[in-house]
Task: inverse folding
């Protein structure tokens, strides 16, 4: 069975976006990028909520032609162009090819995809979707970059848990910026 990995940049008080949806508190420098991008080597399916997907679609396709983009950015843009995508949305039109729009039954769609052969699946931020999938017991790993800031409110990463989830810390790494990357596996 495939693993579902949650990847998110999160403030020390648990927010992936601050008040008004701001993400200006996130430090994603070359050192963090050099650590994060290789984590996607085993991932062949990305999972997004509608808002995160629209943000990604508005950014990554243009990076391939951007002369100022870094090697990390261009590599991720190539990965983004080729990865299968599952998007939780009730409002986006159906897509074809590498994009599946899952409407009201996102849990069943993700559970079915998890049983299919293939590489890992990764959720990118998408806190509302993360709440739903975590409550359904579908998230296997949490890969978080803890930002050295308290934002005081916004979109929380954690929520919607119906039961306590026990996690095992597999690794942690501290960067010069003060960002701390942690890798937790859900104990079943």
Result:
């Amino acid at each position: 069975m495939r693993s579902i990995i949650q990847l998110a940049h999160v403030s020390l008080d648990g927010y992936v976006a601050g008040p008004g949806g701001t993400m200006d508190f996130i430090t994603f420098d070359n050192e963090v990028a050099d650590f994060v991008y290789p984590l996607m080597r085993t991932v062949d399916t990305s999972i997004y909520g509608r808002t995160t997907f629209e943000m990604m679609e508005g950014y990554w396709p243009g990076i391939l032609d951007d002369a100022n983009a870094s090697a990390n950015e261009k590599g991720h843009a190539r990965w983004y162009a080729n990865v299968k995508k599952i998007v939780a949305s009730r409002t986006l039109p159906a897509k074809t090819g590498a994009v599946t729009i899952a409407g009201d039954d996102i849990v069943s769609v993700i559970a079915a995809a998890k049983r299919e052969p293939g590489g890992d699946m990764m959720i990118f931020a998408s806190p509302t979707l993360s709440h739903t999938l975590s409550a359904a017991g579908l998230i296997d790993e949490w890969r978080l970059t803890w930002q050295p800031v308290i934002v005081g409110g916004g979109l929380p990463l954690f929520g919607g848990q119906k039961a306590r989830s026990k996690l095992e810390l597999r690794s942690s790494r501290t960067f010069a910026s003060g960002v701390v990357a942690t890798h937790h596996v859900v104990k079943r």
Remarks:
- Helices lie at 30-36, 50-57, 60-63, 71-82, 106-115, 127-135.
